[in-house]
Amino acid sequence: MLVGLLATAIFWLHFLWVVFALLGGLVVLVWSWVIWAHLLAVAWSSAVFVFGWTCPLTPLEKYFRQLAGQPVFDGGFIEHYILRPIGLTGSTRSMEVGFGLSVLAWNVLLYCIFLSGKMSEFLPP
């Protein structure tokens, strides 16, 4: 039972990492000290996709799921938990590079908006 909880905890940690990599720039607006953690998350997440690496959280989750007697999924975290539920089966190498570059481009855009001082245009009055 404990290993099943560990697998679930790793899933949530991984999920929150993905959300932070995508939306952490918005957190930086409130807590500027978070910028260093966010830049690290963006760099790591982009590199994992662009260079075809495996995030260490994925095999760790699979390991604990196997120990708990739970089904172990094929492929990576994004493929299993995000792409398959929306009907995309299997990701190509081009898609992975595109994901990595998209994470990077999205965050560069956010930081350019922040740094240009035009963020007030996007916030409600």
Structural class of the helices, strands and pairings? mainly alpha
Q: Could you say which overall geometry the principal axes of the C-alpha atoms support?
A: globular
Number of helices: 5
> Regions with pLDDT < 50 over 5+ consecutive residues?
none
How many structurally independent domains?
A: 1
In words, what does this structure look like?
By secondary structure, the chain is mainly alpha-helical. It has one domain. It has five helices and no strands. The radius of gyration is 17 Å and the shape is globular. The model has no long low-confidence stretch (mean pLDDT 89).
What is the topology?
Elements: H1 2-30, H2 35-50, H3 57-67, H4 77-83, H5 93-115
Helix pairs in contact: 1-2, 1-3, 1-5, 2-5
